[in-house]
Specification:
The complex is a heterotrimer. By secondary structure, chain A is mainly alpha-helical. In chain A, 71% of the residues lie in helices and 0% in strands. The longest helix of chain B has 39 residues. Chain B starts with a helix and ends in a 7-residue tail after the last helix. The chains are: A mainly alpha, B mainly alpha, C alpha+beta. Chains in contact: A-B, A-C, B-C.
Chain lengths: 303, 331, 562
Amino acid sequence: MATSSEAIGVLGIPAEEALRPRRHWTRSALRMARQNPLGTFGLAIIIFLAVVAVFAPVIAPYDVGEYTAGQPREDMSWAHPFGTDDIGRDMFSRVVFGARISMGVAFLSVLAGTAIALVLGITSGYVGGALDNFMQRTVDTVLAFPQLLFLLILATILGPSFQTVVFAIAIGIVAPVTRIIRGAVLSERNNQYVEAARALGATTPRILFIHIAPNVVALAIIIATTLLGLAILAEASLSFLGLGIPVPNPSWGTDINRARNALPFHLPWVFFPGLAITLTVLAFNLLGDTLRDLLDPRLRGRL
Amino acid sequence: MRAYIIRRLISGVVILFILSIVTFLLLRVVAGDSADLLCGLACDEEGIEQFREKLGLNDPYFPISLTGEPPFVEFSRDNQYTTWIKDLLTGNLGSAAINQKPLIDTMQQRLPVTVELLIITVIFTVAVGVPFGVISALYRNSFSDYIVRVTAVLGLALPSFWVATLVIYFPSQWWSYSPPFGGMISFVDDPWGNLRQFVPPAAVLALASAAGIMRLTRSSLLEVMRTDYIRTARSKGLQDRTVISRHALKNSMIPVITVLGLQVAGLLGGSVIIEFIFGLPGIGLLLYESLLRRDYQVVQSMTLYIGAAVILMNLLVDISYAWLDPRIRYS
Amino acid sequence: MDKTSYWDRFRRQRITRRRMLAATGVGAAGLLIAAACDDDEGGDGEPSDGTSVPSGTPQPGGRYKWSTSVISDATFGLDPHLAIAAGLEYFARTYNVLINRSAVDDTTIVYDLAESYEVISEDETSPQTYNFTIRPGVKIPPNNLDVPERDMDAEDAVATFERIKAQPLANACQFVCQYFASHAATSPSLYTVTTTKPYAWFEFNIGRAISTIPPREFLESAKLTSASVGGGPYSIADGAFVDGERVALEKNPVYWDTGKPYMDGYDVIIIPDRPGLRASFISEQSYQYGAASEAEVAELIGDHDVYKASDEPSYTFIGFAMNVLRPPWDDPRIRKAAMHAINRQDYIDRVYGGAAQANGIVHWPVTGALDPAELEELQGYNPQMSKDLIREVTGQDSIDITVMFPTSPIQEHELHLPIFIDQMTQAGFNVNQVPLDLGGWLTAYRAKDYDASLSLNQIYETAEIPLDFQHSKGPAGSEIYAGGLQDPEIDAAIDATKSITNFDERVEAVKAVQRQIYEAGPAFLPFVSPLSRTIYWNYVKDVPIGLGSTGLFLVKNVWLDL
């Protein structure tokens, strides 16, 4: 389920993540940057895009809805570095503003989804027993439910909007991540050092927060980084299904879908929103890989 | 092991039962009345009412319903839920909303499309993902390793609907070529036509999954190579090639096969978009069409089938896991 | 590829049509036909009909390939009376209508199941009686659908219109239920309808693709939704229609118009996605393609041996509906402010690449549409006037409005919406956008549960429904989805136009009521109507042009010069 980049698969979690054990983090960021050019590259892109998103109104020469910015289907020029779309809007401005929406969707949905999954997963894994059983069967049911259907129902109830997309992607994240976190908690709980701590009379909150949480949170951070990329793809796929950010908002996913239907291809228009998506997902993936190596001592120094 | 499988199957049935009720209620209570959309723009209240009657939407939901007055419970033979489940279990596999066409007819046409698409996709995924993953692991930190890894990350980063559109657009632009459209061409009748139809979409669909398998193969092989028994085998003087092919590769495939199994369930979802773009009338397209039409009778039945497929696939993965790795025992 | 204007070719097609009638030895009867034969009798007589390429001698045979994105109605399949829009192309090919009269011209009539008809009316306000003489020898071909091989007769017409009457969901029910007082098969060769009152668009409505006449035995059949057989040029055999995949039409070997249709059959395939449709056209898996934009038309004509059918009006438009029962739209000044905020030229240039025309209340090119100069005067783009009107009402520079719209996958909406919002904003409206999925939008629209809304892209070929958008009963005649102006005087004026059977008088009345509506501040504003952008491979010959649905009944003339 995991690595397919479809609307449905997008919301799945890379199953490979589940198979890796977690360890303490000790390495300094600076050294990591020197030794992990790819990860640093990813981080640089993300920071760059974050800056673009925050300062979009300053950077963009035109308003996103300004259809009189140019003639329809203009090529790249100094006035319109990314050309114009089929009614004359400036694509550079739309891609710049699109960073806000796409990054916003990604961060909000992943933050919310992972946070909820963290709470549920730790509870389920640590408390165990009937509660665990109940929660895991619930997760089973949700995982067996076709995500496309789920998203469509959500869009029907809430109406297509920014909030709907965030909510839909976040919900899609919860079940699989809960499962992974629970697995991690279980393996930590059975570790000898936790048993030792319990034998020494440590309280449940103490064991949870001091011994288990740091490792599990590290795992959650790794997962979340990769999920950010997947969330951006999910947003694009949702637009494809007509459930994404509604027009005329400038999301990359919505624009790329408009571009692929407005035939014949107007190449700059086709290229730049796609490049933005690909680059961002690439950046998150590279950063996620690097973080995983950093937080996983068994692979330390091997990448 | 047998007890474990039986237990899993029973829990699978329970999950499907819950799924059926949740789907049933979600579609009715939350997603709105399908009579609304089916009836069309010019439909007034009377028309919608007629539709509801025809679709059986005026019947009670469940065999037992609560009422506001004594005896507070009402039993009804004609209720939507049992009607649906009966329809599901009587060989019709459910039916479409208003024309009551048995779903089994549609499934007979549509299922082979999706099955072939998935099989070719899995073949591509393994044929590309595993060898390159092994190369990448064996020549760790070499130039080819970097190339393979960056390609893999790129494969994960490209939106597949986007790649699929380009795969349709550019060949038609350059060579006036496009894959054959208009229903599945049977492999038996016309193998070449069939492959022209299925290879491009399968390649696009395999892009992301192959990238995932490649990355997993690499890390899994690296991990196995560090284990004590491989070190022992090496220190005994066995050739690297023997160690890798006899021992390391086999063990490193355990997580790969697991993930592959999970991927198939996800590919079912991914095939919706690919089938749409390549005009392949499979079950993904059927689900999408039915959703747009709000043919909830088809949607709810399809939900159960896909749910059952996912549950079965998970069970197979777990069983194969135990089979591959003798250390794992289910009790 | 020549740029003969639509109306030139329209006239030429009419002549050809009359030749066809002469060739089959059909005498014209009835008042309207007599009138029609008077003008252009000595026309140029050019044999070229339909297409812009010189046709040559038709070569019978071959199968026509055609890819399309929708094949059938979700709910009703191929049911000729219940299915919506998508199926219409098939019904006109497989069944008959009595006659078909063009929406744009009362004198253009295609005779099908009826070889002639006459209208009997005592005076201008009393009910009319239509006598249709059924053509002998309209045969039903051999089939696997258990329909006897016999000649179609008047009983089939009776069965069809009885069925439509009994089905409130039938597309033609509004017409049949409202205007049929009685109808009967006086003899197997004479079908008689008496109307409740004079109705201007009777001949148009009785000949639409939503009122086709299947054999009466077949109306009872369960196969009605998945196959079709009748007296039309083609039939769809049992099993030839696969929902969501393809449909195959086979030639009727005993079709009444001997020698036609030229094509042996049609192979229609479904491709849901637009790039796929385009690729199927370029790779010649389809002989025709509805281009996405003018840019695409130019590109394909430049690169391939293809041509665009003609600059044919498509009768479609997206409009802006205001609910006069809710503030601020109850104030005519605000409605007029919205009217002057719309710059139609921008839609024409940017959405349609210049290939469109501005609409008034009755949209171009429907008969009775006001001419461009007058429209400019009545509803012209004038944001300053909008602002002045808003200031007059609110005392402020701007006003908040809420507009809902469907986030349908229809590309046109996505193009209209940004322009609409930007223009409204420029004119002093702060638009609160409410995007809804198609189902949710439909529910709200139907229940009139909205302040203002963009409409769907719909086709109306006569002035009737566009005017009904301003009528209290709305375009469906049942008080759903648009409440019009809620003005009894305007309602009466609109109703009056429907009984005027004289063409010229009707056109004048339609124009007059539009002026009245402009005075009151219209509650529904159509934007622009585009030209059709269908292109064909060059070897496709004699494609009929639309003529407001009439073209559908002339596809039997199509042939391939391969």
